Amino acid sequence: MRERSLQLLEWYDVHARSMPWRVPPADRKAGALPDPYGIWLSEVMLQQTTVAAVRDYWRKFMGLWPTVADLAAAQDADVMAAWAGLGYYARARNLLKCARAVVADHGGVFPPDHDTLLTLPGIGPYTAAAVAAIAFDQPETVLDGNVERVMARLYDVHTPLPAAKPELMALAKALTPQERPGDYAQAVMDLGATICTPKSPACGICPLRDDCMARIAGTAPVLPKKTPKKPVPVRRGIAYVVRRDDGAWLLETRDPKGLLGGMLGFAGSDWSDDPQPAPPLDAEWQQLDATARHTFTHFHLELTILWTRVPGNARPARGHFVPHNDFSPTALPTVMRKVFDLVADSLPFG
DNA sequence: GACCCGTGGTA
DNA sequence: TTACCAAGGGT
Question: What per-residue confidence (pLDDT) applies to A185?
Answer without folding.
Answer: 97
